[in-house]
Description:
Shape: elongated
Distance between the termini: 33 Å
CATH class: Mainly Alpha
Oligomer: single chain
CATH topology: MetI-like fold
Number of domains: 1
CATH architecture: Orthogonal Bundle
Structural class: mainly alpha
Strand content: under 5%
Largest sheet: none
CATH superfamily: MetI-like
Radius of gyration: 22 Å
Amino acid sequence: MAVAPAEIALPVAPRRWLADTARRHPTVVAGALLLLAMAAIALLAPYLGTVDPQAVAPVKRLKPPSALFWFGTDAYGRDVFSRTLYGTRVSLAVGLGVALLSTAVGLAIGLITGFVRLADFLVMRVMDGLMSVPPVLLAIALMALTKASLGNVVFAITIAEVPRVARLVRSVVLSLREQPFVEAAVAAGTSFWRTLARHILPNTIAPILVQATYICASAMITEAVLSFIGAGTPPQIPSWGNIMAEGRSYFQIKPYLVIFPGVFLSLTVLAVNLVGDGLRDALDPRLARRL
């Protein structure tokens, strides 16, 4: 039986592979550590000196950063530090949720359309139509049809990201199905689903992992944009987007209302992109040989 060529730099010994990856691609380590720090902040937010992010105190409104209020207070007297830390939960939940859902749905669509010509013609025309609309505008349109909630935000952004994953997987499958090892499997009578699972799917892992990291970063930015314009999470749920939206009116005199959540958003997106770039370099055999 023909053996599939190594399209992915899969580890022979996981520990050795991880050590080599960390040594050759320090950006993965830096991004992973920063991302783990953000995840720890999200999980431990109630224990990091925070208070109720919705607690209103009019007498403490617009206080500057101090030992009592590390990031100051907003126009309602709410602690910006607490709201920013709790906002980490929203962004990470949206980023990971959209990345997992869009990758799973896009992978299924890409595998089928890349291997079945009739499905390719019908389904990809729908994907092309969705891709013709900018992701942010499509998400805004979908949110306009539903009520503001975290689940609806994840759904709206996922719909906008699925076509990109589907087209990526489809392009990989189209090149793989002409390879000798796939033709040999089909000639040997291997079933359709077994061919996909054993010969096609493993060779899509590398590009899917890298694409998932970029989708995660893009989803967090899109969620912040939606919340900033009032089309994302409801006001009672603190997110970096609506924190910055509420502080923009006071930016000239109280810039910290926008700066602190903006810095957290930038660092989180940077961490995810560093992980994605490092994974791309580590999993691409051509780049691996070059390095």
